[in-house]
Amino acid sequence: MTAKQPLLSVQNLHVKVEDKEILKGVDLNIYAGEVHAIMGRNGSGKSTLSYTLIGHPRYVVTEGKILFKGVDIVEMTPDQRARNGMALAFQYPVAIPGVSVSNFLRASVKAIRGKDVPVKEFRQELKAQMKKLGVADEFLGRYINDGFSGGEKKRIEILQLALLKPALAVLDETDSGLDIDALKIVSEGINNLSNPETAILLITHYQRILNYVEPQFVHVFQDGRIVKSGGGELSKELEARGYDWVLQELTSSAVS
Amino acid sequence: MSESKLINTFARERVDNLASQNGEPSWLKELRVSSWEAYLQTPMPTGRDEGWRKTEIDSLDLSTLNAIDLSTKNDLKAKLPDWFETALTFFDNHSGVVAEVGHSSISAKLSADLVSQGVIFCSIKQALHDHAELIRPYLSKIGSDQKFVLMNKALFNSGTFLYVPANVEIEGPFVSLTHFTSLNGAPNGVAIFPRLIAVLGKHSKASLVNVLSSEQGKESKSSSRSLANALVEVHVEAGAKFEYLELQKFDDNVFAITRTHNQVEQDAVIKSLTVAIGGSQLKGDIVTVLNAHGASSDLQGIVLGDTDEHYSFNTIQKHNAPNTTSNINFRVALKGNAQSIYQGIIEVAKVAQKTAAFQSNKNLLLGAEARADSIPKLEILADDVKCSHGATVGPVDREQIFYLMSRGLAAPEAEELIVTGFFRQILEACTIGRAKEWVYDVLAEKIHQV
Q1: How many CB atoms lie within 10 A of CB B129?
Q2: What is the phi/psi pair of residue A173, to 5°?
Q3: Where does the pLDDT of residue A2 fall: very low under 50, low under 70, confident under 90, or very high at 90 and above?
Q4: Given this model, what pLDDT does residue A4 score?
Q5: Rg of chain A over CA atoms, in angstroms?
Q6: How many angstroms away from the CA of B393 is the closest CA of chain A?
Q7: I need a surface site. Which of A61, B74, B84, B366 has the fewest CB within 10 A?
Q8: Does A160 sit within 8 Å of B407, measured CB to CB?
Q9: Residues in A touching B413 (Cβ below 8 Å)
Q10: Is A82–B398 a contact, with Cβ atoms under 8 angstroms apart?
Q11: If we measure between CA atoms, which residue out of B414, B447, B366 comes closest to residue A103?
Q12: Contact B51, B42 (CB under 8 A)
């Protein structure tokens, strides 16, 4: 393809969960090399978008398209999407007792890269990433997310993304529950995911993380759609004026 | 009816014949005969009996079975099953291997050091021959009114004897294998009666791996079942420590009825793991009697069922004395149409104050037609006790599957990882050699099969 094609193109996306429509026509284009942030209140549908992108079976697409690398992925299973280069860092990653972090990471890296990585090589790569994220060695032997603190879970999520190197990383409220030091480390981990071939979609309701991960595009989510889009400065305006400001502006522009 | 035919059926003649062909002492013959008499007087259990629910005991036709003699010849070069050879690599520091493979028997080569300390590890046949007076009291120490235990006590003709004298501590595990072919080219099924007796003298320490297995006969699957009726009796004397691992891995012709009885004395400790991964019907009772002050037991169980396999395990934690502790952690995962019923009984005698007894049973249903039941039963007569029990039955958590899939694992891989993880938590408790890695591999292989 000669014309530049978006890495992700969400078109008129409608999604329902147990017969309740949550997403009501989302449009969003993300190109390689870009960092986008979606901001919005709790309950505005931000997390629904992230789950829908990765293909959680509970979220049913009723209308619209999700094109990833030019291909509609709506019918794809989550593992197909992951192998295709998409990854989601969960807000609340689930614990899986009995499955150690190291076993899981190896299985996951093998699945995504399509081949086994030699143990020694893998360990070197893993240790280097763990060091960057300040994850202690003992985590490798622990069961995934089992008894982890909120901050530990977030670091392990980012560690996984660092190993999987997705083309599109979706981060769902990765900043919540982090103290300022952890936030800095995790933000640096997120920044390291970014390069001209990859894109990042940050979902958050605080502006705080955007001091460390600077998006070129900010979208405001409200009632299942994007109601306003702008550059990085929009997040600061939101922080200063609150979400109500966007809504008021919308109503007044509708009147005029 | 020819004589050989006659002695292979379940009859008094078989009992007499065993005694004479093995040149057994008269007291042993008397024990066999009295067990046989009691066996005859005990009614056959039915599927309506509580302990036998969900088993198809009614379908077991004893009159069609041929009792066979395992290990009739000593053959050090006998071929061990390949998977057992593999298993042994996980126990490279073992203290001795006794194997009964069909008609062949392989005896253990114990180190001179163990022999000089008085350690005995051999087939039960050899023990009856060489150490008759030593084993004698243990043959009748643990009484039973169970039909199949009495049957075993009358007809046992294979199995293993482990004797660790007082104050002897042994690091490397002992390994025992009882392996047979369920179809010996005969139209009817066969029956075997292994009996294992382990005696841990005062303040001794040892571990034992016991494998009960069979392989599919060369002929196509016959409709008649074979019977493996195994009895395991463990005596952990005061202050002794024993760790036990049992693997039940039968082919789909075998109806296996196993009974393990652990007798735990003052301040003695038993740790055990029972793994059941194959057979048409597996009915297992694991009884642990905490018989004196300070005795403690920690039992783990793993059932991995598939196809039409039926599993029925009953555990009994019996506290007969004060300050005793028991813990049971029993986990079941079922694929296909497999069925399981687990019944866990905690009995605390009136004198057994300060008892702590815990029981947990978790069941994962993987197949759409799989079924699991869990029935706890508490009979507590003491008033100062700590007891708890818990059970869960359900499919694999879909959020866990989704999480793993979102990281690139296909649905079957994700499920496999979760199920092996489910068991791994239990395996962590097993400290015999590299047993947990071995069992993990065996489980992964079975999960992988379909």
Answers
A1: 14
A2: 50, 40
A3: very low
A4: 84
A5: 18
A6: 16
A7: B74
A8: yes
A9: 107, 111
A10: no
A11: B414
A12: no
3-class secondary structure, B351: coil
Q: How many CB atoms lie within 10 A of CB A250?
A: 14
The residue ranges of every structural domain in chain B are 3-396
Q: Out of B399, B409, B423, whose CB is closest to A111? A: B409
Q: Which of A78, A98, A103 sits opposite B406 (nearest CB)?
A: A78
- Domain range for A51: 8-92+165-255
CA distances from B219 to B102, B184, B223, B355 (A): 16, 9, 11, 52
Kindly calculate the radius of gyration of chain B based on its CA atoms and give it in whole angstroms.
21
CA distance A165 to chain B (A): 11
Largest CA distance in chain B: 69
* A81 located within any domain: yes
The pLDDT of A222-244, averaged and rounded, is 88
Residues facing B306 on adjacent strands: none
Taking chain B (450 residues) in runs of 10, the rounded mean pLDDT of each run is 51 86 90 95 92 86 84 83 95 96 91 97 95 96 95 95 98 96 71 96 98 75 80 98 97 94 98 96 97 98 95 97 98 96 97 97 95 96 96 96 97 93 93 94 84
| Residue A112 predicted with pLDDT over 50 | yes
In the chain, the amino acid numbered B122 is: C
Domain count across chain A:
1
The number of helix segments (H) and strand segments (E) in chain B equals 11, 22
Of B332, B349, B350, B354, the residue nearest B341 (C-alpha) = B332
Contact at CB, A112 and B407, closer than 8 angstroms: yes
CA of A226 vs chain B CAs: smallest distance (Å): 25
Considering the domain boundaries, does residue A249 fall inside one? yes
CA–CA–CA angle A41, A178, A228 (5° rounding): 25
Kindly list the residues from chain B whose CB atom is less than 8 angstroms away from the CB atom of residue A83: 408
The token pair at A189 is 């981990």
Cβ contact, residue pair A99, B421, below 8 Å: yes
For A186, the enclosing helix (H) or strand (E) is: helix A180-193
CB contact under 8 A, A90 and B403: yes
Domain for residue A103, yes or no? no
SS3 state at B9:
coil
Tell me if B408 and A99 make a contact (CB, 8 A cut-off): no
What is the CB-side half-sphere exposure of residue A54 using CA atoms within 13 A?
27
Name which of B405, B413, B421 is nearest A78 (Cβ-Cβ): B405
Residues above pLDDT 70, as percent of chain A: 97
Q: Are B18 and B24 in contact (CB under 8 A)?
A: yes
CATH number for position A171? 3.40.50.300
ipTM for this prediction: 0.95
In B366-429 the beta strands, taken as DSSP E runs, fall at 371-380, 385-395
Q: Which residue type, as a one-letter code, is found at position A191?
A: N
Q: Are B331 and B358 in contact (CB under 8 A)?
A: no
Q: CA distances (Å), A105 to each of A126, A184, B259, B396, B424, in order?
A: 9, 24, 41, 20, 17
Between chains, do B405 and A112 touch, taking CB under 8 Å as contact?
Answer: no
CB contact under 8 A, A96 and B402: no
Task: Of B437, B430, B441, give the one whose Cα is nearest residue B246.
Answer: B430
Q: Spell out which residues of chain A touch residue B423, defining contact as CB-CB under 8 Å.
A: 98
Going by their DSSP bridges, the two strands B371-380 and B339-348 should be labelled as parallel
